[in-house]
Amino acid sequence: MTCSPLRLKLDGDALVGNWHLLRDLSGGAACGAAVKADGYGLGAREVVRRLVEAGCRDFFVAVWSEARALADIGVSVSVLHGVRDADMADRPANARPVLDTVEQVRRWREAGGGACDVMVDTGMNRLGVAAEDVAAGLLDGLAIDTLMSHLACADEDVPLNAQQRAAFAGLRERTSAKRMSLANSAGIALGSDYAFDLTRPGIALYGGRQRAAHDGIRQVATPEAQILQRRRVRAGEIVGYNATFTAPAHMEVAVLNLGYADGYLRCFSGRGRARAGDAVLPVIGRVSMDLTAIAVDAAPGLAEGDWVAIDYALPETAALSGLSQYELLTGLGSRFERVWS
After folding, report:
1. Cβ 214 vs Cβ 18: under 8 Å
2. Fewer CB under 10 Å: which end of the chain, C or N?
3. Angle separating helix axes 12-25 and 44-54, nearest 10 degrees
4. Measured between alpha carbons, how far apart are the two ends of the chain, in Å?
């Protein structure tokens, strides 16, 4: 039984099913998995364990501490933020840096080289060496496993997608790279021309949907919160900070152990919803740091200590809140107990 008044119910079958869908959309390319930010907040070790069993062999994290946390699992991990001087002394044998800058390339050469990946900028102007530097021989002699780039607007229908794809395709056979990788979750849905040799899905693994091809993606994470108190609020009385809600009639209210310190932000004030079975329970008043109030007249049997599920389907909740699907997942706090089924 959980000790925390918050839990994140995680559907392992949905996670694996989402990877299978993305693998199939990847065509002949291998399908990896981005597990940075602790598996987008779900718990990277449990995500990796399930995806390895499903057949995934390539995993991507942001920083070396994330790679070290997976070292004993023995999977292939690429570290997207490259390698700093401070990272050189403690690098797991199963992890490769994704070299992002000329300085990182120099640092890697001077340390003796070895297997690496490289990020090339094809128009996003975020991370990556310039295509012109690649053409000039910057990467000559490196033992490159995967040459990568990243799409800036894969979730939109814009000319930049094709421009980046063409720029990246122009690098084929210009380096020693065994594989090329461009497509993220949305990029996979752009079609086979974007798959190259390896795809790198992230948000879609965890329930995010960005394009029509993602319609089969299933929700993985559902927050649940315990009722701290149930109370009667009389007509004309207020609920919560700054009296933003006034009861229009006598009503039943439950106060949850949930607030913006847990990632359930103030934008859900008066807009979010919880559920108990088929009963829809609207958030009322202002979400505070640790507490959220919901109207529970539709669920007369709910009492102190009972659990309610929070509506958190990613595309719909993003539209409701103004937050990105990424923020919704990675912002969920450490007070949630992660419970896999």
Report:
1. no
2. N
3. 60
4. 14
Residue 113: its pLDDT value, please? 84
What's the rounded Cα separation, in Å, for the pair 304 and 231? 10
pTM of the model: 0.96
36 is annotated as an active-site residue: yes
3-state secondary structure 15-67: HHHHHHHHHHHCCCCEECEECHHHHHCCCHHHHHHHHHHHCCCEEEECCHHHH
Distance CA 167, CA 151 (A): 11
- Tens digit of each residue's pLDDT (9 = 90 or more) over 172-227: 999 999 999 999 999 999 999 999 999 999 999 999 999 999 999 999 999 999 99
The answer to whether the Cα torsion of 320, 326, 329, 335 is positive or negative is negative
What are residue 255's DSSP bridge partners? 229, 293
pLDDT tens-digit series, residues 294-337:
999 999 999 999 999 999 999 999 999 999 999 999 999 999 99
| Alpha carbon distance 152, 160 (integer Å) | 8
Helix (H, G, I), strand (E, B) or coil at 340: strand
Residue 150: pLDDT over 90: yes
CA within 13 Å, CB half, 274: 30
Distances (CA, A) of 115 to 2, 98, 100: 43, 10, 14
Kindly name the residue from 36, 194, 260, 264 that is annotated as catalytic: 36
What pLDDT digit, counting tens, does each position of 71-124 carry?
A: 999 999 999 999 999 999 989 999 999 999 999 999 999 999 899 999 999 999
What's the rounded Cα separation, in Å, for the pair 101 and 214?
33
Considering the candidates 40, 194, 241, 326, report the single residue annotated as catalytic.
Answer: 241
Looking at residue 264, what is its pLDDT?
Answer: 98
Specify whether the CB–CB gap between 175 and 147 falls below 8 A.
yes
Identify whether 241 is a catalytic site residue: yes
CA separation for the pair 6, 335 (Å, rounded): 6
